[in-house]
Amino acid sequence: MVRVAMLLFLVFLTLHAEPSPVVYNTLAEPLQKSTVSIEKLSQQPIMEPNKNILRNFLDSVEATLVVGNELSGAKQIDNEVLSAYLKDLRTLSRTKESIDALYRKSLNTAITQSDKKSFEDLISVPMDPLHNPRIRAEVIAFYQKNYPHHSIKSIEALSAEQELEQKSIQFALEQEQAYEEHLRILKRSEVSGVKKIARIGSRNSVILSADQNKAGNFEFEAENLNPYTVTLHIDFETLTNLKASGKLPLFVEIPGRSKKKVLELSRISASEGVDYRSSYGWVRGSAFAVHQDDYLYKLPFIKGSEVVVSQGYNGETSHKGLSAYAVDFPVPVGTPVYAAREGIVVGAEGSNNFGGASPEYRQYANYVIIEHSDGTMGNYYHLKQGGVAVSIGQKVSKGDLIGYSGNTGYTSGPHLHFSVSKVDPLSMRRPMNLPIKMQTAQGIVTLPQKGDRYTVQ
Questions:
Q1: DSSP letter for each residue of 262-292
Q2: In angstroms, what is the C-alpha Rg of the chain?
Q3: Contact of 347 with 392, CB cutoff 8 Å
Protein backbone atom coordinates (compact mmCIF):
# COMPACT_ATOMS: atom_id res chain seq x y z
CA MET A 1 0.00 0.00 0.00
CA VAL A 2 1.38 3.40 -0.92
CA ARG A 3 2.03 5.54 2.13
CA VAL A 4 2.78 8.88 0.53
CA ALA A 5 0.62 10.80 2.99
CA MET A 6 2.86 9.80 5.91
CA LEU A 7 5.78 11.67 4.30
CA LEU A 8 4.07 14.93 3.52
CA PHE A 9 4.25 16.92 6.74
CA LEU A 10 7.87 15.97 7.37
CA VAL A 11 8.87 16.77 3.79
CA PHE A 12 7.25 20.19 3.96
CA LEU A 13 9.09 21.10 7.16
CA THR A 14 12.52 19.62 6.50
CA LEU A 15 12.90 19.94 2.76
CA HIS A 16 10.98 23.07 1.89
CA ALA A 17 13.77 25.42 2.92
CA GLU A 18 16.46 23.26 1.31
CA PRO A 19 14.93 21.43 -1.67
CA SER A 20 16.48 18.20 -2.91
CA PRO A 21 15.72 16.97 -6.44
CA VAL A 22 16.17 13.36 -5.36
CA VAL A 23 13.63 13.64 -2.55
CA TYR A 24 10.92 15.34 -4.60
CA ASN A 25 11.20 12.72 -7.33
CA THR A 26 11.36 9.90 -4.76
CA LEU A 27 7.99 10.93 -3.32
CA ALA A 28 6.25 9.92 -6.53
CA GLU A 29 8.30 6.78 -7.22
CA PRO A 30 5.85 4.26 -5.64
CA LEU A 31 3.03 5.68 -7.77
CA GLN A 32 5.16 5.73 -10.89
CA LYS A 33 6.16 2.07 -10.42
CA SER A 34 2.50 1.04 -10.20
CA THR A 35 1.56 2.57 -13.56
CA VAL A 36 2.95 -0.29 -15.69
CA SER A 37 0.71 -2.85 -13.96
CA ILE A 38 -2.32 -0.57 -13.94
CA GLU A 39 -1.86 0.19 -17.66
CA LYS A 40 -1.95 -3.55 -18.35
CA LEU A 41 -4.90 -4.00 -15.98
CA SER A 42 -6.89 -1.35 -17.87
CA GLN A 43 -6.69 -3.54 -20.99
CA GLN A 44 -8.34 -6.59 -19.38
CA PRO A 45 -12.01 -7.15 -20.40
CA ILE A 46 -13.13 -7.82 -16.81
CA MET A 47 -11.99 -4.30 -15.83
CA GLU A 48 -13.95 -2.58 -18.63
CA PRO A 49 -16.55 -1.09 -16.20
CA ASN A 50 -13.70 0.57 -14.27
CA LYS A 51 -11.57 1.58 -17.24
CA ASN A 52 -12.20 5.31 -16.78
CA ILE A 53 -10.97 5.15 -13.19
CA LEU A 54 -7.77 3.43 -14.27
CA ARG A 55 -7.14 5.82 -17.19
CA ASN A 56 -7.77 8.89 -15.03
CA PHE A 57 -5.28 7.59 -12.47
CA LEU A 58 -2.61 7.03 -15.12
CA ASP A 59 -3.14 10.48 -16.63
CA SER A 60 -3.04 12.10 -13.18
CA VAL A 61 0.20 10.34 -12.25
CA GLU A 62 1.81 11.53 -15.48
CA ALA A 63 0.72 15.13 -14.81
CA THR A 64 1.90 14.97 -11.20
CA LEU A 65 5.32 13.67 -12.25
CA VAL A 66 5.72 16.69 -14.49
CA VAL A 67 5.11 18.97 -11.51
CA GLY A 68 7.55 16.95 -9.40
CA ASN A 69 10.25 17.35 -12.01
CA GLU A 70 9.60 21.08 -12.18
CA LEU A 71 9.93 21.35 -8.40
CA SER A 72 13.15 19.37 -8.54
CA GLY A 73 14.67 21.75 -11.04
CA ALA A 74 13.43 24.94 -9.43
CA LYS A 75 15.97 27.20 -7.72
CA GLN A 76 13.26 28.49 -5.40
CA ILE A 77 10.18 26.52 -4.39
CA ASP A 78 6.74 28.06 -4.84
CA ASN A 79 4.76 27.29 -1.66
CA GLU A 80 1.44 27.01 -3.47
CA VAL A 81 2.84 24.67 -6.13
CA LEU A 82 4.48 22.46 -3.49
CA SER A 83 1.27 22.29 -1.41
CA ALA A 84 -0.77 21.37 -4.47
CA TYR A 85 1.81 18.72 -5.43
CA LEU A 86 1.66 17.10 -2.00
CA LYS A 87 -2.15 17.22 -2.04
CA ASP A 88 -2.20 15.50 -5.44
CA LEU A 89 0.12 12.77 -4.13
CA ARG A 90 -2.27 12.12 -1.22
CA THR A 91 -5.23 11.89 -3.59
CA LEU A 92 -3.38 9.54 -5.95
CA SER A 93 -2.33 7.37 -3.02
CA ARG A 94 -5.98 6.93 -2.01
CA THR A 95 -6.95 6.23 -5.64
CA LYS A 96 -4.25 3.54 -5.86
CA GLU A 97 -5.73 1.88 -2.77
CA SER A 98 -9.19 1.96 -4.41
CA ILE A 99 -7.79 0.35 -7.56
CA ASP A 100 -6.19 -2.41 -5.48
CA ALA A 101 -9.59 -2.97 -3.86
CA LEU A 102 -11.26 -3.20 -7.30
CA TYR A 103 -8.64 -5.71 -8.39
CA ARG A 104 -9.22 -7.85 -5.27
CA LYS A 105 -12.98 -7.76 -5.83
CA SER A 106 -12.65 -8.75 -9.50
CA LEU A 107 -10.27 -11.57 -8.64
CA ASN A 108 -12.62 -12.86 -5.95
CA THR A 109 -15.52 -12.77 -8.44
CA ALA A 110 -13.52 -14.75 -11.00
CA ILE A 111 -12.64 -17.38 -8.38
CA THR A 112 -16.16 -17.60 -6.96
CA GLN A 113 -17.71 -17.98 -10.42
CA SER A 114 -14.93 -20.29 -11.66
CA ASP A 115 -14.32 -17.84 -14.50
CA LYS A 116 -10.96 -19.20 -15.67
CA LYS A 117 -10.55 -16.69 -18.50
CA SER A 118 -10.93 -13.67 -16.20
CA PHE A 119 -8.82 -15.39 -13.56
CA GLU A 120 -5.94 -15.87 -16.02
CA ASP A 121 -6.24 -12.29 -17.28
CA LEU A 122 -6.09 -10.88 -13.76
CA ILE A 123 -3.24 -12.98 -12.41
CA SER A 124 -1.16 -12.08 -15.47
CA VAL A 125 -1.01 -8.53 -14.08
CA PRO A 126 1.58 -8.18 -11.25
CA MET A 127 -0.60 -6.17 -8.87
CA ASP A 128 0.31 -5.63 -5.19
CA PRO A 129 -2.70 -7.56 -3.76
CA LEU A 130 -1.32 -10.81 -5.22
CA HIS A 131 1.40 -10.66 -2.56
CA ASN A 132 -1.11 -10.45 0.30
CA PRO A 133 -0.74 -13.85 2.07
CA ARG A 134 -4.50 -14.53 2.20
CA ILE A 135 -5.20 -13.54 -1.42
CA ARG A 136 -2.11 -15.36 -2.63
CA ALA A 137 -3.23 -18.54 -0.83
CA GLU A 138 -6.70 -18.32 -2.43
CA VAL A 139 -5.16 -17.86 -5.88
CA ILE A 140 -2.82 -20.82 -5.44
CA ALA A 141 -5.65 -23.03 -4.11
CA PHE A 142 -7.87 -22.19 -7.12
CA TYR A 143 -4.96 -22.83 -9.47
CA GLN A 144 -4.11 -26.21 -7.96
CA LYS A 145 -7.75 -27.29 -8.14
CA ASN A 146 -8.55 -26.09 -11.65
CA TYR A 147 -5.22 -26.41 -13.49
CA PRO A 148 -3.90 -29.91 -12.75
CA HIS A 149 -2.28 -30.25 -16.19
CA HIS A 150 -1.57 -26.64 -17.11
CA SER A 151 1.24 -24.54 -15.67
CA ILE A 152 0.90 -20.76 -15.28
CA LYS A 153 4.27 -19.11 -14.70
CA SER A 154 2.93 -16.19 -12.66
CA ILE A 155 1.26 -18.53 -10.15
CA GLU A 156 4.26 -20.83 -10.01
CA ALA A 157 6.22 -17.73 -9.01
CA LEU A 158 3.62 -16.96 -6.31
CA SER A 159 3.89 -20.53 -5.04
CA ALA A 160 7.66 -20.16 -4.81
CA GLU A 161 7.17 -16.85 -3.00
CA GLN A 162 4.78 -18.49 -0.52
CA GLU A 163 7.23 -21.31 0.15
CA LEU A 164 10.07 -18.83 0.64
CA GLU A 165 7.93 -16.72 2.96
CA GLN A 166 7.14 -19.73 5.11
CA LYS A 167 10.85 -20.48 5.33
CA SER A 168 11.63 -16.86 6.17
CA ILE A 169 8.98 -16.86 8.90
CA GLN A 170 10.62 -19.90 10.41
CA PHE A 171 13.96 -18.14 10.08
CA ALA A 172 12.57 -15.07 11.83
CA LEU A 173 11.16 -17.18 14.63
CA GLU A 174 14.49 -18.85 15.24
CA GLN A 175 16.66 -15.79 14.71
CA GLU A 176 14.56 -13.14 16.45
CA GLN A 177 13.26 -15.08 19.49
CA ALA A 178 10.86 -17.97 18.97
CA TYR A 179 7.44 -17.85 20.59
CA GLU A 180 7.48 -19.75 23.87
CA GLU A 181 4.17 -21.38 24.79
CA HIS A 182 2.42 -23.99 26.91
CA LEU A 183 4.44 -23.04 29.97
CA ARG A 184 3.37 -24.14 33.41
CA ILE A 185 1.74 -21.60 35.71
CA LEU A 186 3.57 -21.65 39.03
CA LYS A 187 2.53 -21.22 42.61
CA ARG A 188 3.96 -18.10 44.23
CA SER A 189 6.12 -20.27 46.47
CA GLU A 190 7.86 -21.75 43.40
CA VAL A 191 8.83 -18.45 41.77
CA SER A 192 11.98 -17.72 43.74
CA GLY A 193 13.50 -21.10 42.82
CA VAL A 194 12.85 -20.59 39.10
CA LYS A 195 14.26 -17.05 39.17
CA LYS A 196 17.59 -18.35 40.43
CA ILE A 197 18.18 -20.48 37.34
CA ALA A 198 16.39 -18.36 34.68
CA ARG A 199 18.53 -16.84 31.92
CA ILE A 200 17.67 -13.95 29.62
CA GLY A 201 15.62 -15.26 26.70
CA SER A 202 15.03 -18.70 28.23
CA ARG A 203 11.56 -20.20 28.48
CA ASN A 204 11.28 -19.49 32.18
CA SER A 205 12.48 -15.88 31.95
CA VAL A 206 8.80 -14.84 31.86
CA ILE A 207 7.01 -16.30 34.87
CA LEU A 208 3.26 -16.48 35.40
CA SER A 209 2.15 -17.40 38.91
CA ALA A 210 -1.25 -17.74 40.58
CA ASP A 211 -2.55 -17.93 44.13
CA GLN A 212 -5.96 -17.90 45.79
CA ASN A 213 -6.87 -14.81 47.76
CA LYS A 214 -9.07 -14.63 50.86
CA ALA A 215 -12.21 -14.36 48.71
CA GLY A 216 -11.38 -17.66 47.02
CA ASN A 217 -10.52 -16.03 43.71
CA PHE A 218 -7.34 -16.74 41.72
CA GLU A 219 -4.95 -13.83 41.13
CA PHE A 220 -2.43 -14.14 38.27
CA GLU A 221 0.83 -12.18 38.33
CA ALA A 222 3.34 -11.98 35.49
CA GLU A 223 7.03 -11.23 35.97
CA ASN A 224 9.35 -10.48 33.07
CA LEU A 225 13.00 -11.11 34.00
CA ASN A 226 14.24 -10.00 30.58
CA PRO A 227 15.54 -6.47 29.90
CA TYR A 228 13.11 -6.12 26.98
CA THR A 229 9.33 -5.85 26.69
CA VAL A 230 7.39 -9.06 25.98
CA THR A 231 3.85 -9.77 24.81
CA LEU A 232 2.20 -12.32 27.10
CA HIS A 233 -0.62 -14.63 26.00
CA ILE A 234 -2.86 -16.46 28.50
CA ASP A 235 -5.67 -18.88 27.62
CA PHE A 236 -7.81 -21.46 29.39
CA GLU A 237 -8.93 -24.82 28.07
CA THR A 238 -11.30 -25.25 31.00
CA LEU A 239 -12.98 -22.81 33.40
CA THR A 240 -15.31 -24.41 35.94
CA ASN A 241 -17.40 -22.05 38.07
CA LEU A 242 -14.93 -19.24 37.37
CA LYS A 243 -15.21 -15.95 35.50
CA ALA A 244 -12.20 -14.09 34.07
CA SER A 245 -11.72 -10.38 34.81
CA GLY A 246 -10.70 -9.75 31.18
CA LYS A 247 -11.37 -10.97 27.67
CA LEU A 248 -9.88 -14.38 26.82
CA PRO A 249 -7.51 -15.24 25.35
CA LEU A 250 -5.63 -12.44 27.08
CA PHE A 251 -2.76 -10.59 25.41
CA VAL A 252 -0.84 -8.15 27.57
CA GLU A 253 2.43 -6.22 27.32
CA ILE A 254 4.94 -6.68 30.17
CA PRO A 255 7.83 -4.16 30.25
CA GLY A 256 11.35 -5.40 30.81
CA ARG A 257 12.35 -6.37 34.36
CA SER A 258 8.92 -5.75 35.82
CA LYS A 259 5.96 -7.59 37.31
CA LYS A 260 2.26 -6.84 37.21
CA LYS A 261 -1.11 -8.36 38.09
CA VAL A 262 -2.64 -9.42 34.78
CA LEU A 263 -5.83 -11.38 35.51
CA GLU A 264 -8.22 -12.56 38.20
CA LEU A 265 -10.60 -15.53 38.10
CA SER A 266 -13.58 -14.96 40.37
CA ARG A 267 -15.88 -17.64 41.75
CA ILE A 268 -19.37 -17.65 40.22
CA SER A 269 -21.23 -19.82 42.76
CA ALA A 270 -20.05 -20.03 46.36
CA SER A 271 -21.59 -23.50 46.80
CA GLU A 272 -19.87 -25.19 43.84
CA GLY A 273 -16.29 -26.31 43.28
CA VAL A 274 -13.84 -24.55 40.96
CA ASP A 275 -11.24 -25.75 38.49
CA TYR A 276 -9.22 -24.44 35.53
CA ARG A 277 -6.76 -25.74 32.93
CA SER A 278 -4.55 -23.11 31.39
CA SER A 279 -1.39 -22.32 29.44
CA TYR A 280 0.54 -19.21 28.58
CA GLY A 281 3.15 -18.08 26.12
CA TRP A 282 5.25 -15.04 25.32
CA VAL A 283 7.26 -13.43 22.57
CA ARG A 284 9.90 -10.71 22.70
CA GLY A 285 8.62 -7.25 21.84
CA SER A 286 5.27 -5.51 21.93
CA ALA A 287 2.27 -6.13 19.70
CA PHE A 288 0.86 -2.83 20.97
CA ALA A 289 3.81 -0.66 19.94
CA VAL A 290 2.92 2.22 17.61
CA HIS A 291 5.89 3.02 15.41
CA GLN A 292 6.87 6.67 15.11
CA ASP A 293 6.54 6.74 11.34
CA ASP A 294 8.04 10.20 10.89
CA TYR A 295 11.29 9.25 12.64
CA LEU A 296 14.36 9.55 10.42
CA TYR A 297 16.78 6.66 11.00
CA LYS A 298 20.51 7.08 10.46
CA LEU A 299 22.28 4.68 8.15
CA PRO A 300 24.20 2.47 10.65
CA PHE A 301 27.67 3.35 9.36
CA ILE A 302 30.28 6.10 9.71
CA LYS A 303 29.39 9.55 8.37
CA GLY A 304 30.55 10.18 4.82
CA SER A 305 30.94 6.53 3.86
CA GLU A 306 29.15 5.08 0.84
CA VAL A 307 27.11 1.88 1.19
CA VAL A 308 25.28 -0.31 -1.28
CA VAL A 309 22.13 -2.42 -0.75
CA SER A 310 22.47 -6.12 -1.58
CA GLN A 311 18.90 -6.97 -0.53
CA GLY A 312 16.18 -4.42 0.16
CA TYR A 313 12.49 -4.50 0.97
CA ASN A 314 10.72 -7.58 -0.43
CA GLY A 315 14.10 -8.93 -1.50
CA GLU A 316 14.61 -12.04 -3.59
CA THR A 317 16.22 -14.20 -0.91
CA SER A 318 14.80 -13.88 2.59
CA HIS A 319 13.05 -10.52 2.90
CA LYS A 320 9.50 -11.79 2.45
CA GLY A 321 6.26 -11.81 4.39
CA LEU A 322 6.67 -10.54 7.95
CA SER A 323 10.41 -10.18 7.27
CA ALA A 324 9.90 -8.06 4.13
CA TYR A 325 11.07 -4.73 5.54
CA ALA A 326 14.76 -5.38 6.16
CA VAL A 327 17.94 -4.14 4.49
CA ASP A 328 21.22 -5.98 3.87
CA PHE A 329 24.39 -3.94 3.46
CA PRO A 330 27.44 -5.90 2.19
CA VAL A 331 30.39 -4.48 4.13
CA PRO A 332 33.80 -5.95 5.04
CA VAL A 333 34.21 -7.84 8.32
CA GLY A 334 35.12 -5.36 11.04
CA THR A 335 33.20 -2.39 9.62
CA PRO A 336 32.03 -0.18 12.54
CA VAL A 337 28.26 -0.29 13.10
CA TYR A 338 26.43 2.65 14.68
CA ALA A 339 22.98 2.96 16.26
CA ALA A 340 20.41 4.07 13.70
CA ARG A 341 18.18 5.28 16.56
CA GLU A 342 18.58 5.90 20.27
CA GLY A 343 17.30 3.39 22.81
CA ILE A 344 18.27 0.73 25.34
CA VAL A 345 20.30 -2.35 24.46
CA VAL A 346 18.11 -5.36 25.23
CA GLY A 347 19.96 -8.07 23.30
CA ALA A 348 23.64 -8.70 22.62
CA GLU A 349 25.56 -11.76 21.46
CA GLY A 350 29.15 -11.69 20.26
CA SER A 351 30.70 -15.04 21.15
CA ASN A 352 30.05 -16.93 17.92
CA ASN A 353 32.56 -17.47 15.12
CA PHE A 354 30.58 -19.57 12.63
CA GLY A 355 28.73 -18.58 9.49
CA GLY A 356 27.57 -20.09 6.21
CA ALA A 357 24.79 -20.35 3.63
CA SER A 358 23.00 -23.16 5.46
CA PRO A 359 20.19 -23.12 8.05
CA GLU A 360 22.41 -25.02 10.51
CA TYR A 361 24.34 -21.77 11.09
CA ARG A 362 21.29 -19.76 12.26
CA GLN A 363 22.06 -20.27 15.91
CA TYR A 364 25.53 -18.74 15.50
CA ALA A 365 24.50 -15.19 14.50
CA ASN A 366 26.01 -12.40 16.59
CA TYR A 367 23.77 -9.38 17.07
CA VAL A 368 22.77 -6.25 18.95
CA ILE A 369 19.10 -5.44 19.60
CA ILE A 370 18.00 -1.98 20.75
CA GLU A 371 14.53 -1.21 22.14
CA HIS A 372 13.28 2.22 21.05
CA SER A 373 11.08 4.64 22.97
CA ASP A 374 8.01 3.68 20.91
CA GLY A 375 8.39 -0.01 21.81
CA THR A 376 9.90 -1.15 18.50
CA MET A 377 13.20 -3.02 18.24
CA GLY A 378 16.24 -2.20 16.10
CA ASN A 379 17.97 -5.40 14.99
CA TYR A 380 21.61 -5.50 13.87
CA TYR A 381 22.68 -9.03 12.81
CA HIS A 382 25.75 -11.00 11.61
CA LEU A 383 28.33 -9.13 13.71
CA LYS A 384 31.84 -10.55 13.98
CA GLN A 385 33.10 -12.57 16.95
CA GLY A 386 33.86 -10.11 19.72
CA GLY A 387 32.12 -7.48 17.63
CA VAL A 388 29.63 -6.26 20.25
CA ALA A 389 30.65 -2.88 21.72
CA VAL A 390 27.69 -2.40 24.08
CA SER A 391 26.12 -4.29 26.98
CA ILE A 392 22.55 -5.20 27.87
CA GLY A 393 20.80 -2.39 29.74
CA GLN A 394 23.07 0.30 28.28
CA LYS A 395 21.45 3.46 26.92
CA VAL A 396 22.74 4.46 23.50
CA SER A 397 22.27 7.61 21.46
CA LYS A 398 21.70 7.81 17.74
CA GLY A 399 25.10 7.50 16.08
CA ASP A 400 26.83 5.70 18.98
CA LEU A 401 29.18 2.83 18.12
CA ILE A 402 27.46 -0.47 18.95
CA GLY A 403 29.57 -3.12 17.20
CA TYR A 404 31.48 -4.38 14.19
CA SER A 405 30.03 -6.19 11.18
CA GLY A 406 30.89 -9.80 10.41
CA ASN A 407 29.78 -12.96 8.68
CA THR A 408 28.22 -15.03 11.47
CA GLY A 409 25.01 -17.02 11.37
CA TYR A 410 22.98 -17.97 8.31
CA THR A 411 24.68 -15.80 5.69
CA SER A 412 26.23 -16.19 2.26
CA GLY A 413 28.79 -13.43 2.78
CA PRO A 414 29.89 -10.56 5.06
CA HIS A 415 27.08 -8.06 5.55
CA LEU A 416 24.96 -6.22 8.10
CA HIS A 417 21.27 -7.15 8.31
CA PHE A 418 19.26 -4.24 9.71
CA SER A 419 15.55 -4.10 10.51
CA VAL A 420 13.05 -2.48 12.87
CA SER A 421 10.38 -4.78 14.28
CA LYS A 422 7.45 -5.25 16.63
CA VAL A 423 5.21 -8.23 17.37
CA ASP A 424 2.74 -9.01 14.58
CA PRO A 425 -0.66 -7.88 16.01
CA LEU A 426 -2.53 -10.55 14.00
CA SER A 427 -0.72 -13.68 15.13
CA MET A 428 0.61 -12.12 18.39
CA ARG A 429 3.33 -14.76 18.13
CA ARG A 430 5.79 -13.58 15.46
CA PRO A 431 8.10 -10.62 14.95
CA MET A 432 7.09 -8.31 12.12
CA ASN A 433 9.47 -5.90 10.39
CA LEU A 434 8.30 -2.34 9.76
CA PRO A 435 8.96 0.09 6.89
CA ILE A 436 11.08 3.03 8.00
CA LYS A 437 12.58 6.25 6.65
CA MET A 438 16.35 6.54 6.42
CA GLN A 439 18.22 9.83 6.12
CA THR A 440 20.97 9.84 3.48
CA ALA A 441 23.01 12.50 1.71
CA GLN A 442 20.81 11.81 -1.32
CA GLY A 443 17.60 12.48 0.62
CA ILE A 444 15.05 10.45 2.57
CA VAL A 445 14.91 6.79 1.53
CA THR A 446 11.62 4.93 2.00
CA LEU A 447 11.99 2.00 -0.40
CA PRO A 448 15.55 0.61 -0.39
CA GLN A 449 16.16 -1.80 -3.26
CA LYS A 450 19.01 -4.01 -4.43
CA GLY A 451 21.77 -1.98 -6.07
CA ASP A 452 20.89 1.33 -4.38
CA ARG A 453 23.88 3.39 -3.23
CA TYR A 454 23.71 5.86 -0.37
CA THR A 455 26.11 8.24 1.34
CA VAL A 456 25.86 8.26 5.14
CA GLN A 457 24.97 11.62 6.68
A1: EEEEEES-TTS--EEEEEEEEEES-SS----
A2: 25
A3: yes
pLDDT digits (tens, 9 = 90+) for 56-83: 999 998 888 888 888 877 778 888 888 8
Task: Indicate whether this model's pTM tops 0.85.
Answer: no
Q: Tell me the C-alpha to C-alpha distance, in Å, between residue 370 and each of 91, 269, 328, 341.
A: 36, 48, 18, 8
CB 77 within 8 Å of CB 42: no
Omega before 448 cis (within 30°)? no
The 10s digit of each residue's pLDDT in 107-165 is 999 999 999 999 999 999 989 888 888 888 899 999 999 998 888 988 988 888 777 76
241: buried, middle or exposed (CB in 10 Å: 19+, 13-18, 0-12)? Answer: middle
Half-sphere exposure for 395 (CA within 13 Å, toward CB): 1
Distances (CA, A) of 30 to 56, 83, 448: 17, 19, 12
Which residue type does 203 have? R
Backbone angles phi, psi at 328, to 5 degrees: -110, 130
Provide the angle, in degrees to the nearest 10, between the axes of the packed helices 116-123 and 79-112: 150
